[in-house]
Amino acid sequence: MPKIDARLPKGMRDFLPEEVLKRQYVFGVITDVFKTFGFEPIETPVLEMEDTLLGKYGDEAEKLIFHAQHPGGKEELALRYDLTVPLSRYVSMHENDLSFPFRRYHIAPVWRAERPQKGRYREFYQCDADIVGIEDPSADAEIVSLVTTALRRLGFADFKVNVNHRQILTGIGIYAGVPDAQLGDLYRSVDKLDKIGIDGVAAELRASGIAEDVITRMFTLLERREGGAESLGWLRELLADIEPAQKGIADLEQMVEYLNVMGVPQENVQIDYAMVRGLSYYTGPIFETVITKPDNLGSVTGGGRYDELVGLFRKQSLPTTGTSLGVERIIDLMDKLDLYPPALTGTVVEALVTVFEPGLQGETLKLANELRAGGVRSEAFMQPKKSIGKQVQYADRKGVRVVAFLGSEEIKNGVVNFKRLGDGTEISAPRAEAVQAVRSLLSE
């Protein structure tokens, strides 16, 4: 057959073993936090019916959906864009088998036809946690508490969970005089404030036909975009006659109270009236987390309340809130900030059993199996013609921490010699105590 160029589709990646181990570490920490908060795991197919996904995300987002079709197939299919809309479909199909409120987590790949660039891929993982069936802001506070817990356990200390409310945004638009039909333009433009600045947002709003006095009134308010719970007081007075804004303010005040009783550090949460979240299905509180030091390193989580989405798949909707942890960005930042534990190496192998000569290959395999039976992840070297030095170099290059030596004399005397490669520590142990010897070297 003709040779084929080895290449990947744009925006797709392979991962080396050491990269996979880092990813598994991050997934493991996040999964443990999800379980600690009482969330149950689910899985859904990578393909959904096309009409399940379309009409839920907004025009700009839906341009990024990958459509799929098999030869001769009559079903219109698409690769999932996120894990939120599939959850809404899932709840409606399995509601008789679920207990409500339903707390779920889901860690899985999604696909978007993005323009590939650093930190932005066409295939990537999302880590979602959602609470279905609770309208009270306590559920939103629980999600924010989960986010701060997960990031702290991963080693992040300097971050802000920016919190806003879609009805406050609506109230700001009403206060400024933005017509209802142009609130979508308002959301899309304000969402870009951090990227293009006030002048850029103002230019976009002018291009959308929004009057200059309206823009001025809106930015007078948005200039005071950030603050703690105390900022809600003056906003309540300013928007006193605007009912949606009053509902949003009350929700956030209750959220802040819950966050305080749960011990969420105040320095990690901030009210931000200019934070939008682009997806159109959000209906209430919204949240987005930004790593703030050593620089503003961008958002790593995003989510909010979407009380109407489940109702698209059943007669009555169910109040729902949740978040997605941007695990790809988190992994990139953990590399940048060196947040992985020192014991995390580039291999799963804890001990390499060397082979002194071809006639001892069987003993090498036997000792490796004894170590495995004792719970030590072990590799038996299988190239007896390689010198012991070459075998040790192999182990060192791979990141194996302990090497076992078993020559004729050791077999005769019923002992095994071990060396910890990190500092050169050597010990000898009876064959029956080989597992304990490796464990002691690994634990120090």
In short, what is this structure?
This protein is an alpha+beta fold and 444 residues long. Helices cover 41% and strands 19% of the residues.
How many strand elements? 17
Rough shape? elongated
- Low-pLDDT segments: none
Largest sheet: 9 strands, mixed
> What strand order characterises the main sheet?
1-5-6-12-11-10-7-9-8
Helix content: 40-55%
Mind telling me the C-alpha Rg?
A: 28 Å
Distance between termini? Answer: 53 Å
Count of runs of 4 or more consecutive helical residues: 16
Structural class: alpha+beta
Average pLDDT works out at 91
- Proportion of beta-strand residues: 15-25%
Task: Based on the model shown, name its key terms.
five-stranded mixed beta sheet, nine-stranded mixed beta sheet, 16 helices, elongated, 41% helix, 444 residues
Give the secondary structure arrangement, pairings included.
Elements: H1 17-36, E1 40-41, E2 47-49, H2 50-53, H3 59-62, E3 67-68, E4 77-79, H4 84-94, E5 102-111, E6 123-132, H5 137-154, E7 159-165, H6 166-176, H7 183-190, H8 193-207, H9 212-222, E8 226-227, H10 231-238, H11 243-261, E9 269-272, E10 285-291, E11 299-305, E12 320-325, H12 327-337, E13 351-353, H13 361-373, E14 378-380, H14 388-398, E15 402-405, H15 408-413, E16 415-420, E17 426-430, H16 434-443
Parallel strand pairs: 1-5, 7-9, 13-14, 13-15
Antiparallel strand pairs: 2-4, 3-4, 5-6, 6-12, 7-10, 8-9, 10-11, 11-12, 15-16, 16-17
Helix pairs in contact: 1-5, 5-11, 6-9, 6-11, 7-8
